[in-house]
């Protein structure tokens, strides 16, 4: 057991917006190039995620490493060591992101020694592990390889850790007095892991040269496609300028999965254009409404929406869901011409059309693209 600690003395203060850039190369169903649409959550200090297919094998920590500002070469080398240890221990890439985010919060990726009166008890090293609490000797916990190994060993004992929110998994290892702080660093941890590996990798324990999650796999980013299938009707097309999401055709009763861990904020029948709550029958074009639908709030104030379910969702408002958890089944309720999932992504906790963005590049950037080959 690790005693709760104060917030670490050194901590990065960063804007946590994301900007998806460049063309991505994914590995689901063959090598297919996807051109990214530019978008930004915040204008300043946004992190660019470029999730390619990744590199196989260990990172050369003594070579020239890419930099992810504001982190310098020393900090990136420590991150590379954390990732290398994860590779050697066969920890799935999602674990690398959790470990790097934890080290950012605890030490800003610096191998801290004793800080005198500013020190939190006897906390030391990248993860601020305490010798007095059984993590090892002072010399050991200041060895990045040893410290990373101990972190991963504890993480792997946490049940269902890959599907849980990053902050929950990290807190289960660290037992911090500031358990919510780890989630703040998830975007930058993803960017660092992506930069060092050429792609954040798959999170199911497969070879690290794959970045795109297949089927119900959870990507290293913690995201997964809600159902298998390619996009039919796109986001705000010329023929449907008010279409604030994408449609993925699927058979009735196809399980719909939460795209990432989060909290259910809406689960109900959406009234049609006449104000009727008529979700238990198939809909039709022009009827209006989402039918049975669910909204989930995720880290970084992202909201996902799942429309046209065949019946009342399996989850209720205020439920906490894991990534990949089944929340309902495909149907054709509401404004629908046939069975499909209408899927939306909203930023800044804005459920209105103003917060909606194109889900295709958003999911692509998280290694969880929509593809018929899942």
Describe the structure.
It is built from seven helices and 14 strands. By secondary structure, it is α+β, with helices and mostly antiparallel strands. It folds into two domains: 18-197, no CATH class; 246-365, Glucose Permease (Domain IIA) (Distorted Sandwich), CATH 2.70.70. Strand 9 (292-298) and strand 10 form a beta hairpin. Helix 2 (93-107) crosses helix 5 and helix 2 (93-107) crosses helix 6. Residues 1-55 and 200-211 have low confidence and may be disordered.
Give the overall shape: elongated
The number of helical runs is: 7
Instruction: Name the poorly predicted regions.
Output: 1-55, 200-211
Radius of gyration: 21 Å
**Number of beta strands:** 14
Number of domains: 2
Approximately how much beta-strand content do the residues carry?
A: 15-25%
The helix/strand series, from N terminus to C terminus, equals EEEEEHHHHHHEEEEEEEEEH
Percent helix, as a range, is 10-25%
SS class: alpha+beta
**Which sheet architecture does the biggest sheet show?**
7 strands, antiparallel
Give short descriptive properties of this protein.
elongated, Glucose Permease (Domain IIA), single chain, three-stranded mixed beta sheet, seven-stranded antiparallel beta sheet, 374 residues
Set down the secondary structure blueprint.
Elements: E1 18-20, E2 23-26, E3 32-35, E4 39-40, E5 47-49, H1 73-88, H2 93-107, H3 138-141, H4 144-155, H5 166-174, H6 186-197, E6 246-249, E7 255-257, E8 262-269, E9 292-298, E10 302-309, E11 320-321, E12 326-329, E13 340-346, E14 356-357, H7 359-365
Parallel strand pairs: 1-5
Antiparallel strand pairs: 1-4, 2-3, 6-13, 7-12, 8-9, 8-11, 9-10, 10-13, 13-14
Helix pairs in contact: 1-2, 1-4, 2-5, 2-6
């Amino acid at each position: 057991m690790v005693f709760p600690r104060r917030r670490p003395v050194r901590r990065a203060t960063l804007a946590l917006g994301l900007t998806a850039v460049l063309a991505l190369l994914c590995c689901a169903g063959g090598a297919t190039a996807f051109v990214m649409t530019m978008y930004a959550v915040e204008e300043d200090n946004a992190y660019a995620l470029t999730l390619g297919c990744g590199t196989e094998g260990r990172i050369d920590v003594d070579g020239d490493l890419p930099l992810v500002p504001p982190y310098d070469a020393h900090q990136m080398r420590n991150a590379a060591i954390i990732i290398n240890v994860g590779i050697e221990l066969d920890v799935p890439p999602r674990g690398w992101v959790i470990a790097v985010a934890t080290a950012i919060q605890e030490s800003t990726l610096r191998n801290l020694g004793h800080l005198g009166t500013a020190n939190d008890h006897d906390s030391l090293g990248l993860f601020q592990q305490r010798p007095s609490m059984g993590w090892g000797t002072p010399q050991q916990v200041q060895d990045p390889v040893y410290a990373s190994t101990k972190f991963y060993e504890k993480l792997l004992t946490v049940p269902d850790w890959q599907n849980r929110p990053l902050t929950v998994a990290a807190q289960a290892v660290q037992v911090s007095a500031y358990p919510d702080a780890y989630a703040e660093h998830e975007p930058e941890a993803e960017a660092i892991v992506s930069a060092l590996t050429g792609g954040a990798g798959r999170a199911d324990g497969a070879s690290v040269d794959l970045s795109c999650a297949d089927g119900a796999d959870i990507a290293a980013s913690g995201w997964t496609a809600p159902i298998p299938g390619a996009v039919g009707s796109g986001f705000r097309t010329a023929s449907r300028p008010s279409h604030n999401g994408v449609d993925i055709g699927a058979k009735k009763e196809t399980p719909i999965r939460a795209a990432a861990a989060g909290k259910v904020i809406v689960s109900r029948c959406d009234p049609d254009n006449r104000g009727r709550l008529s979700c238990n029958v198939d809909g039709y074009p022009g009827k209006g409404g989402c039918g049975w639908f669910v909204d989930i709030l995720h880290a970084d104030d992202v909201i996902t929406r799942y429309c046209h379910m065949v019946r009342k969702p399996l989850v209720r408002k205020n439920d906490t869901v894991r990534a990949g958890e089944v929340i309902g089944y495909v149907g054709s309720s509401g404004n629908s011409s046939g069975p499909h999932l209408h899927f939306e992504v909203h930023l800044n906790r804005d459920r209105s059309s103003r917060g909606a963005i194109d889900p295709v590049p958003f999911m692509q950037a998280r290694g969880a693209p929509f593809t018929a080959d899942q």
